[in-house]
């Protein structure tokens, strides 16, 4: 039986009603309804339960069915909703309660324990380490990496009056905003899903916010965007706009399914950016941005940034090289080493 999960947010900001038709399988880590796995089930997809996470899980399911028509059979793919610690605790900054792994830990545990077969993640939420007994061999084609500016009163950051409050849960965004617009105030712990943040904006908690354009596109909510920030104005988070899919390291069957979905250009870009992040030993307390892409000659252009939390200092660097795995890993690591050296001790303490 198909279970219908209906997610609705009331607001005057043109938020769309989001309907998800989800077959849910209950696991120890899941808060989903207690449905029974059918005999025809081939793949159990683990995901968080936010509208965006479910949209990404459904995108994964649809791509699997398109590549493997036998999976279109009723019940062949089910979606397992797993509530993570990061979803449960919204009153504190992520850095104070454990960082990015809070959005992936329970899902990884369900994968390792065999409660799900594959795990779908927003790659920017994935720590630089991958848990033992798992691999992350697949990235879907990357969405737009830019950040969207959203306000009910003005069209851009530059238009905000001095003293205006911008809401964000990202130190990366905060530091870059304050570096360019030191007269603005940034509300740091502006957490919650897209619908929650837009609701707070509409209620006047803040005058503006920044959200990943990729998420708004996947939710079909781009009508809320006031303007789109260029890469020069707001360098994106490492792996922003990329979906990653993990499986157990000893599960060749699932690995073969995922191989058919992998978008190699995206995977290499994400590997480059994550090599940069790992070298910097980045965490939720560290404002770091990084972006790798193909240039007009087909080579890799990487741009990296570290900033003081208050935006007083921003250090940037770039690299060019061939669009190949080894070279892109080296570029990311080398860029990270350079910025570590330039930043010096105490740079992130301001």
Automatic annotation (TrEMBL):
Matching InterPro entries: HemC, Porphobilin_deaminase_cofac_BS, Porphobilin_deaminase_N, Porphobilinogen_deaminase_C, Porphobilinogen_deaminase_C_sf
GO MF annotation, one: hydroxymethylbilane synthase activity
GO BP terms: chlorophyll biosynthetic process; heme biosynthetic process
CDD domains for this protein: PBP2_PBGD_1
SUPFAM superfamilies noted in UniProt: Periplasmic binding protein-like II, Porphobilinogen deaminase (hydroxymethylbilane synthase), C-terminal domain
Pfam families: Porphobil_deam, Porphobil_deamC
Keyword field: Chlorophyll biosynthesis, Chloroplast, Plastid, Porphyrin biosynthesis, Transferase
Residues in Porphobilinogen deaminase C-terminal domain copies: 268-340
Cofactor(s) essential for the protein: dipyrromethane
Gene3D superfamilies for the chain: Periplasmic binding protein-like II (3.40.190.10), Porphobilinogen deaminase, C-terminal domain (3.30.160.40)
Coarse class of the protein's main subcellular location: plastid
Every Porphobilinogen deaminase N-terminal domain range: 43-255
Broad EC category: transferase
PROSITE patterns: PORPHOBILINOGEN_DEAM (PS00533)
GO cellular component labels: chloroplast
Subcellular localization(s) per the UniProt record: Plastid, Chloroplast
Pathway(s) per entry: Porphyrin-containing compound metabolism; chlorophyll biosynthesis; Porphyrin-containing compound metabolism; protoporphyrin-IX biosynthesis; coproporphyrinogen-III from 5-aminolevulinate: step 2/4
Highest taxon above the source species: Eukaryota
EC number, as in UniProt: 2.5.1.61
Family in the record: Belongs to the HMBS family.
Xref: PANTHER family: PORPHOBILINOGEN DEAMINASE
Its biological purpose: Tetrapolymerization of the monopyrrole PBG into the hydroxymethylbilane pre-uroporphyrinogen in several discrete steps.
Protein name (Swiss-Prot/TrEMBL): Porphobilinogen deaminase, chloroplastic
Species this chain originates from: Lithospermum erythrorhizon
Phylogenetic classification of the source organism: Eukaryota, Viridiplantae, Streptophyta, Embryophyta, Tracheophyta
């Amino acid at each position: 039986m198909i279970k219908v999960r209906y997610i609705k947010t009331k607001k005057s900001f043109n938020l769309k009603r989001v309907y998800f038709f989800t077959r849910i399988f209950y696991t120890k880590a899941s808060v989903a309804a207690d449905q029974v796995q059918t005999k025809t089930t081939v793949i159990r997809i683990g995901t968080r339960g936010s509208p965006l996470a479910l949209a990404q899980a459904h995108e994964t399911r649809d791509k699997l069915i398109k590549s493997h028509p036998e999976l279109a059979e009723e019940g062949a793919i089910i979606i397992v909703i797993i509530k993570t610690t990061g979803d449960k605790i919204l009153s504190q900054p992520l850095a104070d309660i454990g960082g990015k792994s809070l959005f992936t830990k329970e899902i990884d545990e369900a994968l390792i324990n065999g409660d799900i077969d594959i795990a779908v993640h927003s790659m920017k939420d994935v720590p630089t380490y991958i848990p033992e007994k798992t691999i992350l061999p697949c990235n879907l084609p990357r969405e737009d990496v830019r950040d969207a500016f959203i306000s009910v009163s003005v069209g851009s950051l530059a238009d905000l009056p001095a003293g205006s409050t911008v809401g964000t849960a990202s130190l990366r965004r905060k530091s870059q905003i304050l570096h360019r617009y030191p007269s603005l105030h940034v509300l740091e712990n502006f957490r919650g899903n897209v619908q929650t943040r837009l609701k707070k904006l509409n209620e006047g908690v803040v005058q503006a916010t920044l959200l990943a354009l990729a998420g708004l596109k996947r939710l079909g909510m781009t009508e809320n965007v006031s303007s789109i920030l260029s890469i020069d104005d707001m360098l994106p988070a490492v792996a922003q706009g990329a979906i990653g899919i993990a499986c157990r390291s000893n599960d060749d069957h699932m690995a073969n399914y995922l191989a058919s979905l992998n978008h190699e250009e995206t995977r290499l870009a994400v590997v480059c950016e994550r090599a940069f992040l790992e070298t910097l030993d980045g965490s939720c307390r560290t404002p770091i941005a990084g972006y790798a892409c193909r240039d007009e000659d087909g080579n890799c252009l990487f741009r990296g940034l570290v900033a003081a939390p208050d935006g007083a200092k921003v250090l940037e660097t770039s690299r060019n090289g061939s669009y190949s795995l080894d070279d892109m890993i080296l570029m990311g690591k080398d860029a990270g080493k350079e910025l570590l050296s330039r930043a010096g001790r105490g740079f992130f303490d301001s």
